[in-house]
Design a protein that fits this description.
- By secondary structure, the chain is of the alpha/beta class.
- It is built from 8 helices and 7 strands.
- A 7-stranded mixed beta sheet has the order 1-6-5-4-2-3-7, with helices on both faces.
- Helix 6 (141-158) links the parallel strand 5 and strand 6 (161-163).
- Helix 2 (40-51) crosses helix 7 (186-199), helix 3 (67-81) runs parallel beside helix 5 (102-118) and helix 5 (102-118) runs parallel beside helix 6.
- The chain starts with a strand and ends in a 19-residue tail after the last strand.
Length: 281
């Protein structure tokens, strides 16, 4: 297994890239100028294309997808495309569900990794985020950590890169997240793109773990409590309600880039660590 801070291989032979996963990889939280989501995968692909002219890119990720849906629906399409590089982030929506089993999820994840590597793709495996700072979600921190360790073992067996989201400390800042606290902000997505780029030896113009600039106004404990109440009412309760009704935010949503194609419509990456304007709660 190769950690992201130790570049694994080089850019030779990477002429096509397929991203598969859920809302994280689709880019939810990072709206582009045309109203479509960008996200870390688009941002990473745009950087990769600078050094690999003619790069073809597909993004099969759809918000709300569970691991078995990604394995059944997206992995076969990725294999059929025969890309040189695949990023796979999946299982986060499953881990959030009560009663989910990290061991069972990791075994299913391994089946996907085995199939992708057997098809000749280099695979990047993503660990889950540290949830200790998010109300309610901090209760599943141990389950996320268990799943992460199982995924690291999978990556080790198949010689995959590991994109360590748990250890990306810049994501512990609230400005790295959108207001729903479930999806990254544009700046958060850009830091992930830089992290993945470093794995492949891209010429990165910024540090994904660079300190955030000081906030103009310090958030008091009282204001933080009000933000938590607002977040629970506006985001957490509706999310739980959808799960209880068996609904998904990805119902009737299709992949934004279903086929490999040259990058002629992905926006240039934004600067890392730019100040973020947030609406008051």
């Amino acid at each position: 297994m190769a950690e992201l801070l130790n570049p694994h291989g080089n850019l030779s032979g990477i002429n096509s890239y397929v991203a598969i996963g859920d809302s994280f990889t689709e880019g939810v939280g990072d709206p582009g100028p045309d109203g479509k989501f960008l996200g870390w995968a688009d941002r990473f692909a745009a950087r990769l294309a600078v050094e690999q002219p003619g790069l073809r890119y597909a993004n099969l990720a759809v918000r709300g997808k569970l691991l078995h849906q990604i394995v059944e629906e997206q992995v076969p399409l990725a294999i059929a495309a025969r890309p040189d590089l695949v990023t796979l982030c999946a299982g986060g929506n499953d881990v959030l569900r009560p009663g989910s089993d990290p061991d069972r999820l990791a075994a299913e994840y391994e089946e996907a990794v085995a199939a992708l590597t057997a098809a000749g793709a280099r695979v990047v495996v993503f660990t889950g985020f540290d949830t200790r700072w998010v109300p309610v979600l901090k209760l599943i921190r141990g389950k996320v950590a268990t799943y992460n360790e199982l995924l690291r073992a999978v990556a080790d067996r198949y010689d995959c890169l590991v994109a360590d989201m748990w250890g990306l400390t810049s994501l512990h800042d609230r400005r790295a997240w959108s207001e729903d606290r479930l999806h990254l902000s544009p700046e958060g997505h850009d830091r992930v793109a830089l992290k993945v780029g470093r794995a492949l030896g891209l010429s990165a113009e910024g540090d994904p773990d660079a300190p955030w600039p000081a906030e103009a106004v310090e958030v008091t404990a009282g204001a933080a409590r009000l933000e938590n109440v607002h977040w629970a009412r506006e985001h957490l309760v509706p999310w739980i309600g959808r799960r209880l009704r068996g609904q998904s935010s990805g119902d009737h949503v299709t992949a934004k880039r279903p086929e490999l194609a040259p990058l002629d419509d992905v926006a240039a990456p934004a600067p890392v660590g730019a100040p973020v304007s947030r609406q008051a709660s």
